Amino acid sequence: MRGFLGVTVHWIEKEAERIQLKTNLLACNRFKGSHTAERICDQFESICDEYNIKDKLDYIISDNAANMRKAFTVCFPSEQEDDDDEGDHLDDPELWCDLTLEDQQTVDAAMAKKQRLQCFAHTLQLVVGDGLKETKVACPSLSKLSKLSSLLHTSTTFKDVFDSEFGEQKGIPAAVNTRWNSTLRQVKAVLQCDHLKLCAVLEKAAHKELSFTPREWNLLKELVDILKPFGEATDLTQGEKIVTISAVVPSILALNHHLEKLKPQVRFLSGLVGSLQVSLKKRFLGIFINVKMARTQNGITAPFSDPVYLKAAVLDPAFSLFWVEPHVLVNRDIKAEVAQQVKELILQDAAETEQPVPLVDEEEQEDLGEGLFAAYHKRQKKDVGTTPALQLSHYLDIAEGQAALLFWALNMKTLPSLFRVAIRVLAVPASSAPVERVFSHGGLILRPHRAQMTDRLLANLIFCKCNAA
């Protein structure tokens, strides 16, 4: 129950003939009193002043809610306030009650930043939360599953019976209300058990009321088929030592395509599929507008509309423009227009970052620009198959998140202007997961037998732990 403010910094560093993604913890300081926007902003500015980096920041990634039960505070509201965001009720309401439009403007003025971006992982979590809340048909099955998990964690007698049938390595983890993927893990765990054997175990233990009917069992299987790609997208964008922002656009468009293909196939959860797609388009509206799959709404800055997401996807050779053809659901002419606009955005940035170096003739410059994107198209695109599940791994020839670093390390001299754009764009993390890991370290350090540890000592230990080589 002690509040702390954690701030991490992320950049790409050139080391001889290679480049490396760097992450450091700047501070994890005690935050006493009310968590108002102004006070968060003041403390953040003091941290930036201490390191003299305020004028060097390109983006600030922040969560759009906070969980006080995990004793952490993530600074600043999202790029667009959503007053009717029902997903935030799962978190501490006191932290966000002050975030009026006036407070938001105060933060914006004090920060004077190009852009503040929402945490991708948390926004995707809210999408799934929206879908599950609108799907009442799954509630009885999930309720049984929750009670079964509780029984395994509270009854030694039932645990013994369960272990004797399925083995001690089997288990059903508890779900966390604020983390939808914990529900997915719970469903996957129970589906690994044989249905008939599980019913027999429950009947033997006098808990027949928790047995799943064949319909409920098939419903849980369908739930996994629907949500598994969301888990994959979440995992792909929470890395710390790998490039993650490049996966945002391909993930969202592939998820939308995945849901579109599922519509005629689902038997029990058609409502969930529809609700997920509606929420996905609402919470990631900026991406759909940028790829011409939605219209701009006058007077509204759509979330995830910053062009950094498109540029990152194209600058990562693992994704390039491969996602345009299968997942941008418009006609071919508009697909080509979208691809051309992204190329122009990148080349414009490259021209703006041009350093005073000897110029080559226009023909050579044009060849370099065309050659970069032509090289992407020459790569053999793997067959993504017809499965409705999202298979982002098909885009990757190299370890996830490493393809971009390797590509630009090899091309830093041949494409210097584009290299300068790439290292600034690809350094941006997709989510605020790195700062959440900071608080996980704090939880491991501040154990019950160390309850008298001072705030300063705890902050120093966390700082040393997170910044250890």
Automatic annotation (TrEMBL):
This is HAT C-terminal dimerisation domain-containing protein. GO terms for molecular function: protein dimerization activity; zinc ion binding. One of its GO terms (cellular component) is nucleus. InterPro entries: HATC_C_dom, RNaseH-like_sf, ZnF_BED_domain_contain. Keywords: Metal-binding, Nucleus, Zinc, Zinc-finger. The keyword Nucleus applies. PANTHER family: ZINC FINGER BED DOMAIN-CONTAINING PROTEIN 39, ZINC FINGER BED DOMAIN-CONTAINING PROTEIN 4. Pfam families: Dimer_Tnp_hAT (PF05699). Its main location: nucleus. It is found in: Nucleus. The keyword Metal-binding applies. Residues 404-465 form the HAT C-terminal dimerisation domain. Coiled coil: none annotated.
